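Consider what follows.

. . .
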Amino acid sequence: MQDALFPDDEAVLAEPAPPALPAARPRGAGVQARPVDEEERALAAALPRGLHLGGSSWTYPGWAGLVWDKRYSEQQLSKSGLAAYARLPLLRAVSIDRGFYQPLTASQYERYAVQVPEDFRFTVKAPSLVCDALLREDGRGLRANSGFLDPALALQEFVEPALEGLGGKIGALVFQLSPLSAPLREDMAGVLRRLEQMLQALPSLKAVAPDGVVAVEVRDPEFLTPEFAAILRAAGATYCLGLHPKLPPLAQQLPILRALWPGPLVCRWNLHRLHGPYGYEEALKRYGEFDRIVDADPDTHAGLAKVIRGTTAAGHKAYVTVSNQAEGCAPLSLQTLARAVLDQG
């Protein structure tokens, strides 16, 4: 990797020319993207073709002028904003997070897939019924989730519908494991056994989604051990680099990536560290319309750009999605990150 970040002796793969975007829809035909200037086209064209940058969802009215040609309602953007979003040359990925709260069907995934170009890739979160060790019952607190890391549920409610609906446009299927209870953290060996059993039961994605990878994202630093990395490697899965205050900073997560090298990068930049581990609501209030950078984080841009550059230079894919809660405005964060990647070249 760049500057020997991760040693590698693989040949660098040639980068294919970017495919043409679909023809623009006529004005008046639903949500429209804002115009793209030549500087932006040049920036996107200069990036490694193995890099897929995008936001966490696309349903933000405050992105008017940044992504949309004018202000639209959340309902309009939810229904028909994805096709417009995917017309911006920097936005070659998006994270589908809504399936965490309610499993999506193959037909729902397919409706997303048909709106985007062939080289667009989705990062998709698995449903909470598989990823949450505790589930909330209305008015009755939390209860143990019998479906936590259940292989049959993971396959039936997530992997199979995603493969059927998204097909080759899958970038990463992410199991984001919510914070564990204290008793489970004290039994990490047991949790890791359950994780291993689930991952080993999942099918390879390659026949349907040649670029696709299964990734595991965590919220407890107790996971970040050689044993965890060994389980991922043995199952052909990878670690989702989670940039979130519940975890150590990026540099302290690199040993897990090194243990899994060589391979693709999956990263979700979720929340600025200044808000602390429980600062999501604070960030929502502070960042308002998500139309500007409020809390710039140049150190994270520099560190992440180095990992991206090293990964793609060795011929591997990089799927990186950024939330509005990272700095205040995901589209502007992505522009800054793209320039930082070029600076590493």
Remarks:
- Residues 9-28 have pLDDT under 50 and may be disordered.
- Residues 151-166 form the longest helix (16 residues).
- Residues 31-343 form a domain with the TIM Barrel fold (CATH 3.20.20.410).
- The beta strands are 51-56, 93-96, 121-125, 134-136, 142-144, 170-177, 213-218, 238-243, 265-269, 318-322.
